[in-house]
Amino acid sequence: MTDASPSKDRLPPIALTIGEPAGIGPDIAGPAFTALRGKVPFFLIGDPSHLPLGTEFTEIATPAEALTASSLPVLCHAFPSPRRPGDPQADHAPHIIAVIEQAVALSRSGEALAVCTNPIHKKALKDGAGFAFPGHTEFLAHLAGGADVVMMLACEGLRVVPATIHIAVSEVPTALTRDLLAQVIRTTHSALIRDFAIATPRIAVAGLNPHAGEGGAMGMEEIEMITPLLDDLRAEGLDLIGPQSADTMFHAAARAGYDAAVCMYHDQALIPIKTIDFAGGVNVTLGLPFVRTSPDHGTAFDIAGTDKADASSLIAALRMARQMGRSRWERSA
Predict the structure, then answer these.
(1) pLDDT tens, position by position, 95-112
(2) Longest dimension (CA), the chain
(3) Which of these CATH numbers, 3.40.718.10, 3.30.70.1230, 3.10.310.10, 3.40.50.300, describes 1-146+288-333?
(4) Which residues line the annotated binding site for substrate?
(5) pLDDT tens, 224-282?
(6) Which residues does the annotation place in the binding site for a divalent metal cation?
(7) Whole-structure pTM value
(8) Cα–Cα distance between 100 and 16 in angstroms, integer?
């Protein structure tokens, strides 16, 4: 399928995947619909029998029907066995993958405005279906034809992008190459324009070392690689601040001076955003030919099926998907 622009008359709904049925994805879909009814149209792709008992839903045949549904719209994808909260089923794995593929296809065809993904469990997918990807992000990049993607975490007042993600801290200096950092910064810059409607993005870039190296006293990466790269990117027209000392980048006055912060490794980026808004953070994949957001939490097997799951992050992810999808639509109109 090829990418298509949504109708100029009315934006299509967002495709929400069920994720791992044994997790909290089925638990939070209904509360998210109640919170967003009439504001952010979306539909769930999955097996309605996996929803908690008493969840009101409307089975739909096409995404467009979600726009007028009075209860949670479900585009049915039948799974081969019942849900067992907290206990992933091997026979569910191929269907979880197929649901993600269906959501992407609907987004790329224009029937869905964006994709929002509930959490998956990578080991369960590997054991049950030979899933060969580290996670959602890499699989979505594969479905997009091998796109260069970047992970952003966002909440009200802060967007952060880690240049390196799930690797040991000892491996960061080697993994943090000039080419990688340039790709991350350029992808972030382009996404802020296309997906967040920021005409002239301001990006703060952290240093790798304490105090951004303090003139070489605490490390040479800033002098030898990061600063020369930022100077070259500034010559291309990018508005960049840094490299900055990471311990002074995230207080309120500092955050007011930029639209996104590019950090050098996982915790440097995620500690500030999870401190500011632990429940409401959103995971965004930048660089895809479609919009993708996700709640910033895992499957939470320990509370699945107990009515204790908090839908706040999913609600925020759906709202952001709507905003980003609208931005792309308005740019293409």
Answers:
(1) 999 999 999 999 999 999
(2) 63
(3) 3.40.718.10
(4) 136-137, 274, 283, 292
(5) 999 999 999 999 999 999 999 999 999 999 999 999 999 999 999 999 999 999 888 89
(6) 166, 211, 266
(7) 0.90
(8) 9
